[in-house]
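== Folding the chain ==

***
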Amino acid sequence: MIELILGLDEAGKGPVIGPMVLCGCLIEKKDEIQLRRLGVKDSKLVTPKRREFLEIEIKKIIKNYELVVCESNEIDESSFAGIKLTEFEAERFARIINNLNDGKERIKVIIDCPSIGISSWTDLLKPKIKNLSNLELVIEHKADQNYLAVSAASILAKCERERAMDKLKEEYGTEIGSGYCADPATIRFLEKFANKHKDKGIFRKCWSTWKNASEKLNQVQLNF
């Protein structure tokens, strides 16, 4: 019997600029050895150049994959409607599982849990999955470091997000930075353009980082 593993992870959960990308990688267990030989690991432990190489090679090995790109304005709309990010992610992870699960074969589904509470997040996820009968759910913290299928999903998600950021840099300039709140370049960009570009859909306006930058700009304008 073919043993299938579906690894799921995301990239870009925390940034104030740019999308969050979720990915599911469906592999045959026997192909784990190829991923291991390639040096597949959590995307945060791989250089950008190496990630690009691994993305190409991973796609040659895996049985199937799916990406879900969640733009900043989509995250905002959900947040303003009172939906927590953990529930937002649960719905989209379930969407990937539903699309990759044909219900005919047993699949071990492994997810890098996006919430502190594994049990409570699992309870959010399960009702959103259409067919659980052939699935074994494994939801853990640090799954992207401990399971090759999840590491592969991490790399594919990260590469897709980086391409999205490259497009934003072409439009808004490289000073936009990485989009992460800890990036000084990104913060400087916010301090200049939080209000000017607020309707372009690139900022997560539900984040306090954007709100603070916007309020500072408004205060400066009032003082003139």
Q: What stands out?
A: The mean pLDDT is 95.
